[in-house]
Amino acid sequence: MNKLLISPSLLSANFGCLKDDLDKINRSEADWLHIDIMDGVFVPNISFGFPVLEYVAKLCNKPLDVHLMIVQPEKFINEVKALGSMMMNVHYETCTHLHRVIQQIKDNGMKAGVTLNPATPVSVLSDVIADLDMVLLMSVNPGFGGQKFIPNTLKKVRQLRQMIEESGSGALIEIDGGVNLETGKRLVEAGADVLVAGSAVFKAPDMIDMIHKMKNL
Ligand code: DX5
Ligand code: ZN
């Protein structure tokens, strides 16, 4: 088993001192930076758009793990690519032609991730799992940081791990929402590969130390 990957979520950063927060991420053991893009349609909130993210991409030296909570995410493949993103995650619930979108992301040189809402079963991915680089399981309803972890996610992690093993897929399992040292430990035991953490990291008294602790769960 490879070492656990940590992807701090930009949504909880202090945008008044963004450079300071990103400097700390750069100096930490964080593996990626998780970026939440919202449209106020698919989710009941709006976060940040591409002009802001161009600065983030310049200031951050970690690979970008982009999570699009928007309808028709395929319209923005070029913009996500232009940021230099490593991973583009689209929601299953927003893609009528999911197979095509996955291929388009990969054709543009990015890794392809598909995200599932808490109410969406992992079984819907059985026919594309072999094509995926990652599955992102939401452990809160998407749209806001600082929400409470939904425990049913642990069962979904175990089901997904079994599906991945049976299919021979190389997909990583990433979890997003309400992740802290306590829920993170349970997720690792269930089979998670990547933990996203927003408030647990950015609201910690010592971000670098919190990331170190998560990394060693
Ligand atoms: C929620 C976002 C998350 C969010 C997680 O819709 O997808 O990435 O930043 O925040 P925490 O870790 O505070 O639950
Ligand atoms: Zn996210």
- What is the gyration radius calculated from CA atoms? 16 Å
Proportion of strand residues: 15-25%
| Fourth-tier CATH superfamily name | Aldolase class I
Q: How helix-rich are the residues, as a percent range?
A: 25-40%
CATH topology: TIM Barrel
Count of alpha/pi helices: 8
- H and E order: EHEHEHEHEEHEHEHH
Poorly predicted residue ranges: none
Helix and strand composition category: alpha/beta
Give the names of the bound compounds. Answer: D-xylitol-5-phosphate, zinc ion
How many domain modules? Answer: 1
> Biggest sheet, open or closed, and with what strands and sense?
8 strands, parallel
The CATH class is: Alpha Beta
Terminal Cα separation, in Å?
13 Å
Kindly report the average pLDDT value: 98
Provide a descriptive summary of the structure in words.
With 217 residues, the chain is α/β, with parallel strands linked by helices. It has a single domain, classed as Aldolase class I (TIM Barrel, Alpha-Beta Barrel), CATH 3.20.20. It contains eight helices and eight strands; from the N terminus they run βαβαβαβαββαβαβαα. An eight-stranded parallel sheet has the order 1-8-7-6-5-4-3-2. The longest helix has 15 residues, at 153-167. The chain is globular, with a radius of gyration of 16 Å. The model has no long low-confidence stretch (mean pLDDT 98). Residues 9, 11-12, 34, 36, 67, 140, 142-147, 176-179, 196-200 line the site of D-xylitol-5-phosphate (DX5). D-xylitol-5-phosphate is lined by residues 9, 11-12, 34, 36, 67, 140, 142-147, 176-179, 196-200.
